[in-house]
Design goal:
397 residues, alpha+beta, Globin-like, Alpha-Beta Plaits, Arc Repressor Mutant, subunit A, five-stranded mixed β-sheet, 18 helices, 5 strands
C-alpha cells in the first residue's frame, strides 16, 4: 500500500468539510457517473441504490485516506470491483468511474481553496491525492478480474457438467437434452450433431485451438475432458460437406481422434460418444490423425474386439511373428504397402524403393511362413484382416 506524507492543516480542513457533506456529495457523484458513463445508465441488473451505495462507500474511503495521510481499508473498492463484475459492467467503465470520482473530489477541493496560500498547499498535495485514487482503482480492478476469473471457472464447470450429461446419456428426456443444447449455444442452426473423441497423451492438448478452427467453417462446438480424453459435441450446419470437419481436425490432431456419424437428436449423443471412441481406436496407437466411424469396417471390427483381433493376427501370421524384429517389420510393411497399392508389385516396389523382384521375394516369404498366398482370394483376405488386427492391437510389428 502507498503511504502519503502528512496532510496540511488547511487541506485536512477541506477534507473534513467534504466528509461532513458526504451524503449530498454521493448523490452528485452518482448522477455524474450515470451521465458520464453509459455502461452504468444502461445496465439493467445494477440498481440506482446499488450504485449509490458503492459510490458512498468508496467516497468515504477515499476522503478518509486523503485525510489521514495513508490508505485505510480497501474493502470498499474491492466490493465495487466484485459488484461491477457480477453485474456485467465493463472493467473500463469501472475504472472510468474512479477517474470521475477523483476529478469530482479534486474539483470540490479546488473550489474550497479561497486564497493563494490554500491553493498552493492543495497543489502541493495533488500528486499524493491522485496516487490514492490510482491505488483504489487498482484494488477495484484486481477484485473485478478475480471475480471474472472465478465466474469463468464456475461457468466452464457448469457447462462441462451439462455436456457430460448428454455424452453419458443421463439427460432425463428429449426436452431436457434439447434444453442443454440450447444453453450450450449449439442449437442455433438446428443441424446434425457429431461427437469427437481425442486421446490425451502425456497430458498434451490433442486438438489445439479446435473450437476456433471449427468455428471458421461454421461448426459450433463444446468441449470437456473426461477419462484421459478430450470430448467435443459439434453442431454442424445443414449441407455442410461431410469431409470438411474431418479435414479441419486432421490439420491440428496430435493424437488419435475419432469422429462419430452425424445424428439428429441430442438424446443420441451417448451412442455417438461410443462411436467416436471406437473410431479413434481404428487408428494405430501413436497415430496423429482422424478417423470417422464406419469408414473402415474391418478396422472397426478389430477395434470393437481387440482380444479377438489379436487372436486372429496370431492365428494367421503364426511363425511370421516369431521372426527377428527387422525381418518381421520388413515383411509386414511390404504386405501393407502391397495392399495399399492395390496388389501391384510394381507400384509397391516404387513406394518401398526396391526392385519388383524383391517385393515378390518378400511376398513368397510370407506365404512360406503363414501358408497363405496373396494370389488366393480367401488367403489374401485373411492376411489383410490379420494385418489390420496387428496394426491396432498389441501384436508386435
Amino acid at each position: 500500500m502507498t503511504t502519503l506524507l502528512g496532510t496540511d492543516e488547511c487541506v485536512a480542513e477541506m477534507l473534513d468539510r467534504l466528509l461532513d457533506s458526504v451524503d449530498s456529495l454521493t448523490d452528485e457523484l452518482t448522477t455524474e457517473i450515470l451521465v458520464g458513463e453509459l455502461a452504468y445508465s444502461e445496465s439493467t441488473p445494477l440498481s440506482h441504490a446499488q450504485l449509490r451505495t458503492a459510490v458512498h462507500d468508496n467516497l468515504c474511503a477515499l476522503l478518509a485516506s486523503l485525510h489521514g495521510g495513508a490508505l485505510t481499508s480497501v474493502e470498499a473498492p474491492r466490493a465495487a470491483g466484485r459488484l461491477k463484475a457480477e453485474q456485467g459492467i465493463p472493467l473500463a467503465a469501472l475504472l472510468h468511474a474512479f477517474r470521475l470520482a477523483g476529478r469530482f473530489i479534486w474539483d470540490r477541493l479546488l473550489a474550497m481553496a479561497v486564497d493563494e496560500n490554500s491553493a498552493a498547499k492543495l497543489l502541493h498535495r495533488a500528486s499524493d491525492i491522485w496516487v490514492v485514487i490510482d491505488e483504489y482503482s487498482s484494488v477495484a480492478a484486481e477484485a473485478y478480474r478475480a471475480t471474472v476469473e472465478e465466474q469463468t471457472r464456475r461457468d466452464a464447470a457448469a457447462r462441462s457438467v451439462k455436456l457430460t450429461t448428454l455424452l453419458d446419456g443421463t439427460a432425463e428426456n428429449s426436452s431436457s437434452a434439447w434444453e442443454i443444447v440450447r444453453v450450450l449455444g449449439l442449437d442455433r442452426r438446428k443441424g446434425p450433431f457429431q461427437v469427437v473423441y481425442a486421446e490425451i497423451n502425456d497430458g498434451a492438448e490433442p486438438l489445439p485451438a479446435a473450437e476456433g478452427r471449427l468455428r471458421e467453417i461454421g461448426v459450433d462446438s463444446e468441449w470437456t475432458h473426461q477419462a484421459g480424453a478430450l470430448l467435443g459435441l459439434l453442431a454442424v450446419p445443414h449441407g455442410h460437406p461431410a469431409s470438411a470437419t474431418q479435414e479441419r481436425l486432421s490439420t491440428t490432431a496430435l493424437s488419435r481422434v475419432g469422429i462419430s456419424r452425424p445424428f439428429a437428436s441430442p438424446m443420441d449423443a451417448s451412442n455417438a460418444r461410443r462411436e467416436a471412441q471406437l473410431a479413434a481406436q481404428c487408428l494405430p496407437p501413436g497415430t496423429h490423425d482422424t478417423h470417422v466411424y464406419g469408414s473402415s469396417p474391418i478396422a472397426l471390427l478389430a477395434a470393437a474386439s481387440p482380444d479377438a483381433a489379436a487372436e486372429v493376427a496370431h492365428t494367421v501370421f503364426g511363425p511370421l511373428l516369431t521372426q527377428p524384429e527387422t525381418e518381421r517389420s520388413l515383411l509386414l510393411d511390404t504386405l501393407d504397402t502391397w495392399f495399399a497399392t492395390g496388389g501391384s508389385t510394381t507400384r509397391a516396389a516404387e513406394h518401398l524403393h526396391c526392385h519388383r523382384n524383391t517385393v515378390l521375394y518378400r511376398l513368397n516369404r510370407i506365404t512360406e511362413l503363414t501358408g497363405r498366398r496373396t494370389t488366393d482370394a480367401a488367403s489374401s483376405a485373411e492376411l489383410y484382416i490379420a494385418l489390420c488386427a496387428a496394426r491396432l492391437s498389441s501384436v508386435p510389428r
